[in-house]
Amino acid sequence: MSVGESVSVTVSVAVGIWQTVWRGVWAVKWRSVALFLSALVPFGLLVDIMPAGTRYAVGLLGGLLAIYLGWSYYVVERAPQYGGLFGARALAVGVVGYVVVIIALGWLVPSPIALVHLGAVVLIFIYYWFIAFIAFFHDQIGRSKYEPEPPYPSLTVLIPAYNEEGYVGRTIQALLDADYPTDSVEIVAIDDGSTDETFAEASAYAAAFERVSVVTKANGGKYSALNYGLLFADGDVIITVDADSIVDRDALKYIVAPFDADETIGAVASNVTIWNRNSLVTRCQQLEYTIGVNIYRRALDYFGIVMVVPGCLGAYRREVLTEVFAYDPDTLTEDFDVTMKVLRAGYRVSVSDARVYTEAPATWSDLYHQRLRWYRGNYMTILKHWPIVTDPSYGYLNRIALPFRLVEMFFLPFASFVVLAYIGWLVLAGHLLTVLAVFVFFTSIVFLIAALGIQIEGEDWRLLVYAPLLVVGYKQYHDALNVKCLIDVLTDHDLVWTSAKRVEQTQPTESETAPVSDATSD
After folding, report:
1. Which fold has domain 155-363?
2. Using H for helix, E for strand and C for coil, what is the string for 40-99?
3. What percent of the chain has pLDDT over 70?
4. What is the pLDDT of residues 469-484, one digit of tens each?
């Protein structure tokens, strides 16, 4: 090769490298990077004002958890034969030993307040630099690992409906309008013994569209309606949609994409968005969904252990639902329960970019009744699947998902009130600056997590106004309800379904419920 040719090749390689680097720089979502790294300021200030012993204690526990997570990754991915070593139970024992050590070294004063405070600080570190970081990374490389490509599988969409007059028609119409091959979708609405015009409203669509059918049964609950609907399902993928939810136009394509890409995936979750944001309650719920549900799901997606496929839009392989015997009657949260059954059967559960719009409770009373069912059902489901906690063969589900969920459900609600009592004591003792400093720190972190979630999810930036309520007010409302529901589950085994009132539960107009023909919907 001549000198001229050598120079030409060198220049071409250099240009290629430069173009690759330049495209990479432009592909970076710099606003997300700036938001994520800005948390270094409040965390740095917190570390700076901590007593030396507290810094050592936080660092030691952080190191223990980092070793645990690294070991968990190695065991699950590379050496499953060592699954019984340093698992979730060993971690619990290690944490107890850690508490003994830091007390013996004088790094922590032995009191409930000190332990809870230390736990809260460590958890906020973990949530931001582990869970939020994974969601941030998820956004940087592309919000979804799965892009929809034909050929698309055949679908059966199940819509369980009880007294959904004025809603079920809109739900069916949105599915008919979805961008999906019409010959590959069948829609089955299941009237679960409604006492209003739900059956008639759905039947109008069945009369107008061959791919819509309506079946009816005596009222037996959502789980029984879904099981009954499965008897009429022919699709390879089963999709469930709540009768008060409206799927985005491309939602069906996105929610089935993971099945084609990975045969180990048994179920797929959607991205839930609240459409009725006209009150303080609903706006707080949307912010809660953005940072507490959707971001958390995206983090768990990396491990294939998304723990809840939401009932408002979820997808399952037909054979997987058959294998786990579909829906059970023994919890109040059939979506959480069936997802856990899919995970226990050895399948991965992923998240997609499929978006669904759903109605949220519009008053505190309605929110109370909705969450009463949710939180009772959550505790019932965790207790039902308790063997996962002690069985290391469940991999990431045992090592990562359940420990986080147990802390969230059994520690945080009680710790919240211990901290609240401590803050009350500080105020009475005149330590107002200390209380203000703690409030500013936690609010700033929640604010940054909320901003990151809004950036990732493309949400309304005005929701940031409500971030402080997720520290004081809205949070304690849910913590108190969690404590009540745990007591209910432990003391009363005959709990009933509770639900919120519908915002638009009135007789709909003809234009709201009349089916649109196939020609019009196209």
Report:
1. Spore Coat Polysaccharide Biosynthesis Protein SpsA; Chain A (3.90.550)
2. HHHHHHHHHHCCHHHHHHHHHHHHHHHHHHHHHHHHHHCCHHHCCCCCHHHHHHHHHHHH
3. 88
4. 988 899 999 999 999 9
